[in-house]
Design goal:
Layout (H helix, E strand, L loop, with lengths): L4 E2 L5 E2 L2 E8 L6 E4 L4 E5 L5 H7 L10 E4 L2 E2 L2 H8 L9 H7 L5 E4 L4 H31 L5 H24 L2 H19 L6 H4 L10 H33 L10 E4 L7 H18 L5 E4 L7 H14 L5 E5 L2 H9 L5 E5 L12
Parallel strand pairs: 5-11, 5-12, 10-11
Antiparallel strand pairs: 1-2, 3-4, 3-6, 6-7, 8-9
Amino acid sequence: MAKRASAGPGRTAGFLRLVAAHRHGGEQDRVVEFHPRLTVLAGSDPDLANWVTSLLDANFPTDTNFELDGAPATARDLQLLLRDATPSPLRVDALALLAGRAPEVRSTPPEKSAAAHLGKELDRWERVRRDAKNRLVRAREHAGRVEPFDFTEAARLRNEWLHAVQLDRREHQRRTRHAVETRRQEYDRFLARFGATSSEELSVVGTGFGETSGDVAIREAATFVSMAEQRCARLRSALEGIRRFGSEPGDEPHVATTTHHLHDIDADAADRLLVRALARREYVRPIGPLVVDRVLDALNPVARRRACDRLLSHSSVRQVVIVTSCSAVAQWAARARAIDVSLTEVGDVEPANRVTT
């Protein structure tokens, strides 16, 4: 059994899952909801799996909802869990390597596709950055604002309460005890208007350094802004490197891509390969959802259905997201029980006979 990673004081990461995320981009701008067990995202967009895994990055978008052990996860929980993670989808090449097959190499257009991908990613993160800045502005507006005369009033009420305490220590009478309680209640009620419990907390209300709910919201929003700005800066640098030098600085030029075809493998062999690939993924990354990128599309119809059942079984211990462009998988998900599988179409779906035996 995989070791359970700490998610903060008093919490452990037993089961982290996606709940919902906002997918930006023209007509595809929508909120995608994820099933607690198995979600099938049907579409021909080649960046669909990369989008899902980007939600599991340490710099996750602010409009993404997670659950940790069945409860809503906070930003701190996710930062602790995902800061060292390098999530990647399970793709066909993993099964091909386990099968001992060499990939087929085909040439691709040079840097144009990489620049287009980075451009789309940069646009998405620019929107995330703007949303995060708007969230920071709203957090500062909703946080309590302390004026100079409020500090004077707080000091007056505090001094009156302390004077009543000293007087009660000398006289020990019912009226002095009543005066102490009255002055303390007045002081507490005044501080409660700003969410503070002491004069020291009152001095930092609305600055982001206090412990009030408004200050916590300001800190979280500022953290999101910082992460989004850092990601945008890295993407701009990478895009500039491709435009000027044909590749990112320090990267080797990309001249070819690989494709794998496993439709000639029988169902039993394909199932064994999938089990081995899942076992390796559980060892490397036991936390968070597993994204399966078009693995089922490369199998023949019989092996594909067997793989669907295998992934459904695996979803009982870990959330699974299947990315596919095959209508046969979409049809299977549509007929499955709602408590096990959900289907979300995010683009065009290829015909079921696109991959044949």
